[in-house]
Amino acid sequence: MNFPVVKSNIVSCVSNTQTMQTNKSSFKREIKLFDAVMIVAGTMIGSGIFLVSSDIAREVGSPGYLLLVWIISGFITMVGALSYAELAGMMPKAGGQYVYLREAYNPLVSFLYGWTLFLVIQTGTIAAVGVAFARFTGVLLPNIFNEENVVLNFGFLKVNTMQVLAIGSIVLLTYLNAQGVKNGKLIQNIFGSTKIVALFALIILGFLIGQHADAISANFSNMWTPQKVTISNGAISGSSPLVGINIVVAIGIAMIGSLFSSDSWNNISFAGDEVVDPTKTLVRSLAIGTGLVTLIYLLINLVYLLVLPLPAIQTATSDRVAVAAAEAIGGPAATLIIAVLIMISTFGCNNGCILSGARVYYAMAKDGLFFPAMSRINSKGVPAKALWFQCFWASLLCLSGTYGDLLGYVMFAVIFFYILTIIGIFILRRKMPDLPRPYKAIGYPVLPALYIILASVFCLILLIYRPDNSWPGVFLVFLGIPVYFLFRNRLQHDQAV
Fold first, then answer.
1. Can you tell me the distance from the alpha carbon of 110 to that of 392, in angstroms, rounded to the nearest whole number?
2. Which residues have C-beta within 8 Å of that of residue 22, sequence separation ≥ 6?
3. Is residue 7 part of a domain?
4. Distance from C-alpha of 242 to C-alpha of 248, rounded to nearest angstrom
5. Measuring CA to CA, how many Å separate 432 from each of 8, 269, 354?
6. Distance of CA 391 to the CA centre of its chain
7. For residue 3, what pLDDT band results from cuts at 50, 70 and 90?
8. Separation between Cα atoms, residue 142 and residue 138, nearest integer Å
9. 66-77: per-residue pLDDT in tens?
10. What is the spatial distance between Cα 407 and Cα 188, in angstroms, rounded to a whole number?
11. Quick one: average pLDDT of 424-442?
12. CB-based contact 162:134 (threshold 8 Å)
């Protein structure tokens, strides 16, 4: 097959002429280091850290293994980000990971990434975080926003007020980002810094006044006895010990939640053409942002264990472990405070995802491998059409499934393409040895290789033990192959004409 349809633009930086149009507007370099760090950290911190520790605790069944899952996930994330930063420094272009895959492999591989990003990775994350935003708004206004409050009933589809709110928040953020990157980064800075300060406040309160002697005694006297716990009607109904390979499998399954909570660190690279001094800023923001969030996540989980006995974490209502911890620290009123914090967190997270994701579809369209309208930049210097396409599909996904369903589909595809991208570092060192590398991956080749091994084990566990989630993700990726050839044939026809 003749894959190299799209010319490299790493050296020449000449855009493909397939659009047959000239953009009067262009991207504006307005994202500075603080803005970039807030995009990294702000998109990483969504709703996951407030929820997924309950499920992790049920899967591994011990405080020690709960912390170990977060430590492994943090290590994988940091190594991935610090390796990925080499590519970001080399190729600071709009599209980020899409561009890296195109240069390391071929247009088909990069298209499959962009296709999957649009179909489920980015839009699925936006939808899942939007649903979480609506869920915690329901804590404040339970009579208005709940799953039973149906506003539209089509028989085969019922639309409730929580889904309407989730979609409304996505539409609002899309509109604001379509008005220019200044709006997007301002929202990100405000909401990102607010939730980081609030999370550190929760951590400090947990360590200073929230510790419960009973919880500490129960959790830290017997930390390393893993067991799978089952829940029925809000209580533990059974457990089974984990031994041998089953411990590894349990850790892998538990990491679905922790890796989802740690994801989206790569989003800043999608906006490479809008970053000031990108070769330095992209690398620094990846290191600072992922390091900061990894530290916060470990400390928050320590607070959970200092405040709540493990069974209370495992049986938290609707997995709202942060709410349970806050209530244990500050009483019932703290529940509302945490609900507001999660609303701020998810709103800011979705802003970062919405801002960055559209830049990938823009890059695909510029290469002639997506809808031509997405290649247009409006007078505000942003790809508005791509933003609205993304908004439309994410809104549909809000109606399609639960938070957990989207989580499963997203994680396999995300890690699969991260593996290909990190392998791309090895390929490009041979393929383009003379291309300037302002930053080189720390610990190369050992740490990037270790990332590839650990991430591959995670994907293998999902394929074997979570087939309902992972195999649909595989299908969605390969579904992009015929779509690629449809776009490629259209490009060749336009070029011939």
1. 23
2. none
3. no
4. 9
5. 12, 20, 32
6. 16
7. very low
8. 5
9. 999 999 999 999
10. 23
11. 95
12. yes
Residue with tokens 């329901």: 138
Lookup: tokens for 325: 């911890």
Would you place residue 145 in the very low, low, confident or very high pLDDT band (cuts 50, 70, 90)?
confident
- CA of 254: how far to CAs of 29, 52, 56, in Å? 40, 9, 5
4 belongs to a structural domain? no
- Residue 363: pLDDT above 90? yes
Q: Give the integer Cα–Cα distance in Å for 185 and 192.
A: 10
Position 18 scores a pLDDT of 38
CATH number of domain containing 58: 1.20.1740.10
Q: How far is it, in rounded angstroms, from Cα 6 to Cα 9?
A: 9
CA dist 291 and 82 (Å) reads: 10
Cα–Cα distance for residue pair 157/314, rounded to 1 Å: 32
Is residue 170 a part of any domain in this protein?
yes
Return d(Cα 69, Cα 259) in angstroms, integer.
9
What is the C-alpha separation between 9 and 24, in angstroms, rounded? 20
Which runs of E-coded beta strand occur in 269-358?
none
Reading the block at residue 109, the tokens are 């591989």
Length of the chain: 497
By CB atoms closer than 10 A (0-12, 13-18, 19+), residue 388 is middle
Look up the domain containing 123 and give its range.
17-496
182 CB-contact burial (10 Å; exposed 0-12 / middle 13-18 / buried 19+): middle
pTM of the predicted structure, to 2 decimals: 0.89
Closest listed residue to residue 421, CA positions, set 50, 121, 134: 121
Burial track 10-40 (b if 16+ CB lie within 10 A, e otherwise): beeeeebebbeeeeeeebebbbebbbbbbbb
H-helix segments, 209-244:
213-220
